[in-house]
């Protein structure tokens, strides 16, 4: 069966770490079911959606954007309490491949409702495997989240893709 389409909601495929094999990395991503990749440079051009990386300052960040229409807390790693406030505002949580090896991120994955979840690799960082991370490894995050939420891979892939399309207007 063909993999459902997946969107890597944040990565740095434009970084020099991919200079020697960017094309191959993109083909591997395609073979893993990744249909679209949102790079950090492009995200700023999307109208209406604010994408935040608020490491250790999630609460402050929320105060700043609370009147915005649509906000993605990318690479979210804050508390469950702050996450619930973010969700109360109708905003989205993007979990990175960190979820494959961090207990805290697994706890976040358990709590976040599926209709507010995005997934990302933040590659070349946060690799769930040896060495550099790349968009194809998004499947590791989806598998992990599916196990935590006791559902299947397809459902997580479909739902996170649907959410990404909605918020990024793609
Ligand atoms: Zn990043």
User: Which strands sit side by side, in order, in the main sheet?
Assistant: 3-4-5-6
State the distance separating the first and last CA atoms.
Answer: 25 Å
Report the bound ligands by name, code or SMILES: zinc ion
Q: What is the CATH C level class, in words?
A: Alpha Beta
Spell the H/E element sequence: EHEHEHEHEHEHH
Radius of gyration: 15 Å
* CATH architecture descriptor: Alpha-Beta Barrel
Which descriptor suits the 3D outline? globular
Helix-and-strand structural type: alpha/beta
The tally of helices reads: 7
Mean pLDDT equals: 90
Number of structural units classed as domains: 1
What does this structure look like?
By secondary structure, the protein is of the alpha/beta class. The chain has a single domain, classed as TIM Barrel, CATH 3.20.20.140. Helices cover 39% and strands 17% of the residues. It is built from 7 helices and 6 strands, in the order E-H-E-H-E-H-E-H-E-H-E-H-H. It has helices spanning 22-31, 40-43, 58-65, 80-88, 103-111, 138-148, 153-168, and strands at residues 6-11, 34-39, 49-52, 70-73, 92-96, 117-120. The strands form 2 sheets. It has a 4-stranded parallel beta sheet. The protein has a two-stranded parallel sheet with strand order 1-2. Helix 6 crosses helix 7. The chain is globular and about 40 Å long. The two termini are 25 Å apart. The chain binds zinc ion (ZN). Zinc ion binds at residues 10, 12, 40, 122.
């Amino acid at each position: 069966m063909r993999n459902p389409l997946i969107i890597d909601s944040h990565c740095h495929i434009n970084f020099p770490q991919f200079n020697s094999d960017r094309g191959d990395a993109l083909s591997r991503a395609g073979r893993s079911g990744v249909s679209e990749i949102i790079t950090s440079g492009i995200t700023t051009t999307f109208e209406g959606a604010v994408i935040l990386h608020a490491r250790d300052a999630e609460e402050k960040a929320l105060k700043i954007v609370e009147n915005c229409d649509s906000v993605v807390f990318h690479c979210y790693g804050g508390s469950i309490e702050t996450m619930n406030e973010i969700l109360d505002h109708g905003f989205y949580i993007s979990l990175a491949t960190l979820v494959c090896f961090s207990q805290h991120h697994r706890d976040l994955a358990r709590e976040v409702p599926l209709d507010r979840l995005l997934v990302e690799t933040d590659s070349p960082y946060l690799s769930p495997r040896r060495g550099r991370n790349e968009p194809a490894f998004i499947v590791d995050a989806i598998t992990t989240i599916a196990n935590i939420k006791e559902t299947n891979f397809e459902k997580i892939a479909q739902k996170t893709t649907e959410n990404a399309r909605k918020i990024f207007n793609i």
